[in-house]
Amino acid sequence: MVISTGFPAAGMPPTRLDPVDLGGLVAYLRNMNSIDRGSLKPGNADRGRMIVEGKGACLSCHRIGGTGSYKGPNLSAIGATKSAGIIERSLVDPNSQLWPINRPVRIVTRNGTVINGRRLNEDSFTVQIVDDEGRLASFSKPTLREFKVLDKAGMPSYKDELSGEELSDVVSYLLTLKGPQ
What we know:
- The chain is of the alpha+beta class and 181 residues long.
- Among the domains are: 42-98 and 158-175, Cytochrome Bc1 Complex, Chain D, domain 2 (Orthogonal Bundle); 104-149, SH3 type barrels (Roll).
- 28% of the residues lie in helices and 20% in strands.
- The strands form 2 sheets. A 5-stranded antiparallel sheet has the order 6-5-4-3-7, with no helix packed on it. Strands 1-2 form a two-stranded antiparallel sheet.
- Helix 3 (45-53) packs across helix 6 and helix 5 (84-92) packs across helix 6 (164-175).
- The longest helix is centred in the first third of the chain and has 13 residues, at 19-31.
- It is globular and about 50 Å long.
- The chain starts with a helix and ends in a 6-residue tail after the last helix.
């Protein structure tokens, strides 16, 4: 694989990634240009907001503005950073869009305390996470009994939970979220 071995003639050095991060990077690269614009139908953003706040229960895990949970990534600016196709795929197949950053993690400290959260940053010696309550925490890896990066999204698929029209509405609403106004 070129990512692992590099391509020295083109100036690309080899990169060492753990298998989970490598899989996430490959999934991202494969999906960069695979948006099927023909299948994306414009929806109604107002109806999408009602689904996000109601039937979809998105705010039980995600945050928009000052409302919602810290369990999942903040969606306040998703419309500024993600395309309609990527958002739609995230809703119907969350594992396909799971980026290395924000992956769910399970940490067990030396004293046995279990902490679940999302990875924000990691290097060879430390990991920084936000736990399910929204608290930031930094850990020195050698002091941990267990540090596991999960390869499955905590988010359910909405493929069978929402109709095609409802999915279009939710995507249309999320595309309006561009961050602080």
